[in-house]
Amino acid sequence: MNAGYKDAIIRTVDTNVVVLAVAYFQDLKNIGNLWIAFGTGQDFRYIPVHEVARSIGPDMANSLPFFHALSGCDTTSQFANHGKNSA
Predict the structure, then answer these.
(1) Does an H or E element contain 50, and which?
(2) Which residues pair with 86 in a beta bridge?
(3) CA end-to-end distance (rounded Å), the chain
(4) Cα separation of 49 and 37, whole Å?
């Protein structure tokens, strides 16, 4: 049920949530602006998911979960005999 709200905010400290929010923002038809309140302490910031998703486009946004799983996901293991490097 959409009570007429056009803006939403998600509070998280997990980069996986940020990646998924950007990747799937285009599928949230009723949301105009989506913000993520990310981090803690001095590293806390608001990320405008709607701006990030629109600036990188739908093709790149759809590829973010795959790229994140290979390069930055906290729980992805390395390939056999190959370490995981940072992007």
Answers:
(1) helix 49-71
(2) none
(3) 39
(4) 10
pTM over 0.70: yes
Residues in Cβ contact with 81 at an 8 Å cutoff, skipping those fewer than 6 apart: none
**Tens digit of each residue's pLDDT (9 = 90 or more) over 57-87:** 999 999 888 887 777 655 545 555 555 555 4
User: Measuring CA to CA, how many Å separate 41 from each of 8, 9, 11?
Assistant: 22, 18, 13
**Distance from the Cα of residue 68 to its chain's centroid:** 9
- 26: which DSSP letter? G
Percent of the chain with pLDDT over 90: 51
Q: How far apart are CA 80 and CA 36, in angstroms?
A: 35
Is residue 17 classed exposed, middle or buried when 0-12, 13-18 and 19+ CB atoms within 10 A define those classes?
middle
Q: Which residue, 22, 29, 85, is CA-closest to 59?
A: 22
- The rounded distance, in Å, linking the Cα atoms of 18 and 82 is 27
